[in-house]
Request: fold
Amino acid sequence: MDRLFSTLSVLFITVIVGYLTIDAKGHWDFVLAFRGAKLSALLTIAVAVAVSTVVFQTITANRILTPSIMGFDALYLFLQTALVFFLGGFGFASLNPFAKFGVETALMLVAALALFGVVLRNAKDLARMVLTGLILGVLLRSLTSLLNRMIDPNEFSVVQQASFARFSAIEAELTWISAAIVVACFLWLMARHRMLDVMALGRDTALSLGVSQDREVRRLLVVVALLVSVSTALVGPVIFFGLLVSALTYRIAGTWRHGVLLPVSALVSAITLVGAQTLFERVLGLQTSVSVVIEALGGVVFLILILRRRAR
Amino acid sequence: MKRTLAAVTALTLFAAPALAETTIETATGPVTISETPATTAVLDMASLDMLDALGIEGVTATSNTYLERLAPYAGDLGTLFEPDYEALNALSPDLIVAGGRSTEAVPQLEKLAPTVDMTMWGDDLLDQTRARLAAFGALYGKEAEAAALTESLDAEIAATQAAVEGKGNALILMTNGGKVSAYGAGGRFGWIHTEIGLPEVIEGLEDTSHGESVSFEFIRETNPDWILVLDRVAAIGGEGESAEATLDNPLVAETTAAQKGQIVYLNAGDIYVAGGGITSVLNTLEIIQTAFGASS
Amino acid sequence: MTRPAFVFPVLVTLILVSLVTGVASLGEDGWWLVFVSRLPRTLAALLAGAGLAVAGVIMQMLARNPFVEPATAGTGQAAGLGLVAVTLLAPGAAIWLKMSAATTAALIGTAGFVALVRRLPTGDPLLVPLTGIVYGGILGAATTFLAYERDLLQYIDIWMSGEFSGVMLGRYEILWIGGALTVLAYLYADRFTIAGFGEETTRSLGLGYGQVVALGLVIVSVITAVTVVTVGMIPFVGLVVPNLVARMRGENLRETLPYVAVSGGVLVLACDIIGRVIRYPFEVPVGTVLGVLGAALFLWILHRGPRRG
Reply:
């Protein structure tokens, strides 16, 4: 276990140093400050996505469901487009970022609680739940497209930008609030890692061990919703990233203990995100949003994992 | 947020010892610039169009300028949507000109260098063209050139007004592959109707500020005397199904516009990418004038 | 067993409604207008709907899963990828070249999906649609990557959201290829039904499983490519229609395929008429209407209880 952590730590430091130093242009004091701010945003998102996915999968006792697969990205896009539609592209762009962030987070939080509540009530009929989530996603995407059609093509490009996760254009001010929320959530979850271990054993076992399951689940859901909202509102939709990170984490950690799973997932997530960002932005010099590539990568890894599962 | 930052920027600049202080009008209100910028980073194609027309030196733009005539200014400043902040820092320009597609980046840009947002928006586009032109002229000490350009703009408008007078109504279309959208006087190309007095084919389009997806039946039914066409695919440098091919069909052929050969293909790249830029507007007026002038 | 024969009178009614619904008024040259504009549009909607519904049912047989269709199995995304690739390599490409590129890409993409599905662990039917969606997401990301680097994002939107506003005489005829394949699928319906029972059953009945799968793949890919190239991707038809028909008539393709095809046509035509009317005289894409209506229908199917038959 110590070896695992030291290996991950070395990797983590490597990608961070790489991210901060490779291909720097301009003055060092600017570059370091500028990249440092972006780095802290990346780390915030990485931790939020990783931890929320792991906890969500523990609650739902399923390793394929993630909040984003349940239609969250679509909801976010719809929200963004609706904002552009009602405020106009210029109005959208000049909206106070704090107000925008606050509104988005609040809306996402409400929607997340509603959606997750439904998911859990029907957790036994998983096939139906996943499909419901996916179909809701399509429904929202169709509404988004309807609004897009009604928006001037020029403004449409504003939406199109907002509809990719953009790691390079994050508001520095927002990062600090988000980081504080994420750190608080992480610490709260770490303090309850034994509780999560018990809940992972299943509802009946947890009840017989004296856990008031329903209340715990509700609390955890609020935290998950908060984390998801923060990461989505901060950067945009990242659908398969959570799945990629949680799948990697279960393989690497080789344990069910959340005291290990949570920090490992956070590290894996940070290494993946920052590493990919370094590779694509600095080394390859590609314009494309890194998220597009990470999504594709996450998808590929997911498929490999599913196929491997059969081989074992 | 942006306003406060702009104000702060303005204040800081005001406090600094100034040589040739100029206050110019921008999309976010008046901004004071302390001295004539020697190096300028431009993240807005319409502004680049105007700086080019004024003959400003020391201008660097994004890596893709879309328009052939603006290609000499292409630099390494990233894209309109994602400026390369580090390259901007390395360049340390005296002024950053943003607007339109790069408006969202302004709060970040302001941390690097004095930034002005020169977005042109709404249906009084040409008034804004005049205002921006005057602002740039004042800023770079090119008032005479700016005035000359404004004069030729006014002259061109007058000439175009005369050319289109009594020649019938028009419908503005944008094609995207095989599909077509219509634009009205309230839309982003509305100045073609309002400024040069070209009547709209139907009043109903007036309220729509965005393009409306329409069928070819719509074009036939409204039966415009003139059709002004923008090819969106050509505007961004693609070579998909051309606007000519899309509009060459029996339904469009029924219209007065087609029968009299009055379908005018506008300079899509100019209007779409650098809409409101002075050269862009002059080119467009020129095309309309030639087309309408030739008809009797 | 409910008789789904009611779709036929509905079909006739919708065709009549479609012929008289449009922006242009049917004056003295009304017949000409119907011939040049209305009839092609009506036929295009029917052909696309029938083709996609049949493609959906074939995919469901081949993947042995009721929740796959061209739009959720990477077929549509692969066709789009092929189109973007050919647009980048040969910008002014002729329509047949685009068609071939889209078809080839769709074929490879769908074959890849079927290969993946066959290697999936059995017993968890959930994994199939999930895999399809992830797989389609990867192909979609590749398309976005190419389009983003070359400023073609809005252009690919043409292919990704189905719309009949540009359809008229001379602009939709490729869709007849889809119509022909729908007929072909009917001729081979029994084999697809048997393939739906799995590889071993198929072989024990003396049929070449590989051949049936290959034929199915070709039919699905060509229908999808043809639709994407001419009008753009239309979601849900392939998912909703076969499930609704199977509910009423069971899963013998020989018997149900005509109903699937007609219902698919009816659904798409109805949505196109809605799209023509709700913002008259402007157009709302049929893909958007179906995204909303189809999603609602599907949720209804999903929550109405297990299917019979």
Notes: Chain B touches chain C through 28 residues (CB under 8 Å). The mean pLDDT of chain B is 82.
